[in-house]
């Protein structure tokens, strides 16, 4: 049975502060848990005024404190930015606080430009190329095998579910080789989704952690009582994407009427490409889009990214997305 999970970028709303965005994490995590979602993931970003998830482990702790059983974790931690030992301590601490429900999704990109990458780690010249070594080292800090001569406390013996994340073919290849679960960031980089999943499943090697391929893929979704309202709410996401792709990233803007109709053709085409994996509409329309997405990909989990300018509209949207997903189970 396909699972439904949630990705939170901790978007900062236009006119508000990072603190406002962070304080919404706990209530949203509790809301998502009550609706039956399987995971609540936070994504690491740096130097972006519109995203407040830089101290990712701290934000995950906010989600963990507000919930009781939903899995919480990273989607993901950008491994080149950090010492594997520090990550082991941070996620070992999370596991000590929320035992048996912590995920550690790992990405290879720094999630920052060159200057920020340099600020995050002083010597980062080869870190992206050494990503596989970093994954092995991090795993060893949790398991003690091989013995690295250091003990992460908390960390050693922590029950952490580790994932490889990606938006290219590299992550699929690595997850398959290591026998790890794999998640694809198709909510913003959909072009290689099908090929990446094919490679992952074809080349998967069973491991001590996973006996068969297990994959997830992300999609943006907004649901409302009418199609027009959903598209209106989603115009905040659309504006955000256009700003990012044109080098003007900012806070999540207020929605606007008829946003798509106002765009130049070339910008509209770029936006359409970026949002291939999205669902904006009524419960029935979102259910149809999710059904098609699952049929296309065969993923074990759909991870929904669903920001909105208005918090009540966002909560309502997420509840309707859960309703749409539940209808798929009834149909099945």
Automatic annotation (TrEMBL):
SUPFAM superfamilies assigned: Bacterial luciferase-like
GO cellular component, one term: cytosol
Superkingdom of origin: Bacteria
Gene Ontology molecular function, alphabetical: oxidoreductase activity, acting on paired donors, with incorporation or reduction of molecular oxygen
A UniProt-annotated Pfam family: Bac_luciferase
Family matches, as InterPro entries: Bact_Lucif_Oxidored, CmoO-like, Luciferase-like_dom, Luciferase-like_sf
UniProt domain Luciferase-like: residue ranges: 15-300
PANTHER family given in the database record: LUCIFERASE-LIKE MONOOXYGENASE (PTHR30137:SF6)
UniProt similarity note: To bacterial alkanal monooxygenase alpha and beta chains.
The protein, known as: Luciferase-like monooxygenase
Organism taxonomic ancestry: Bacteria, Pseudomonadati, Pseudomonadota, Alphaproteobacteria, Sphingomonadales
């Amino acid at each position: 049975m396909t699972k439904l999970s949630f990705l939170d970028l901790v978007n900062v709303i236009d006119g508000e502060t990072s603190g406002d965005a962070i304080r919404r994490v706990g209530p949203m995590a509790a809301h998502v848990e009550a609706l039956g979602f399987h995971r609540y993931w936070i994504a690491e970003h740096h130097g972006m005024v519109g995203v407040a998830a830089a101290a990712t482990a701290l934000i995950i702790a906010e989600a963990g404190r507000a919930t009781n059983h939903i899995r919480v974790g990273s989607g993901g931690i950008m491994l080149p930015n950090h010492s594997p030992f520090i990550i082991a301590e941070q996620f070992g601490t999370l596991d000590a606080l929320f035992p048996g429900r912590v995920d550690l999704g790992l990405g290879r990109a720094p999630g920052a430009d060159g200057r920020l990458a340099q600020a995050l780690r002083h010597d980062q010249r080869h870190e992206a190329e050494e990503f596989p070594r970093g994954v092995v080292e991090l795993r060893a800090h949790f398991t003690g095998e091989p013995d690295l001569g250091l003990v992460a406390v908390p960390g050693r013996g922590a029950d952490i579910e580790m994932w490889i994340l990606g938006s290219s073919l590299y992550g699929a290849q690595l997850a398959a080789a290591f026998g790890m679960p794999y998640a694809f960031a198709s909510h913003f980089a959909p072009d290689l989704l099908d090929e990446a999943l094919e490679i992952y499943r074809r080349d998967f090697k069973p491991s001590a952690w996973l006996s068969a391929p297990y994959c997830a893929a992300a999609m943006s979704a907004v649901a409302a009582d009418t199609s027009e309202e959903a598209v209106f709410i989603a115009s905040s996401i659309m504006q955000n994407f256009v700003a990012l792709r044109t080098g003007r990233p900012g806070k999540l803007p207020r929605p606007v009427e008829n946003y798509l109709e106002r765009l130049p053709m070339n910008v509209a085409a770029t936006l359409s490409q970026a949002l291939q994996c999205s669902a904006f509409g009524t419960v029935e329309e979102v259910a149809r889009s999710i059904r098609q997405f699952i049929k296309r990909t065969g993923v074990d989990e759909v991870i929904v990214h669903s920001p909105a300018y208005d918090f009540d509209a966002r909560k309502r949207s997420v509840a309707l997305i859960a309703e749409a997903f539940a209808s798929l189970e009834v149909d099945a």
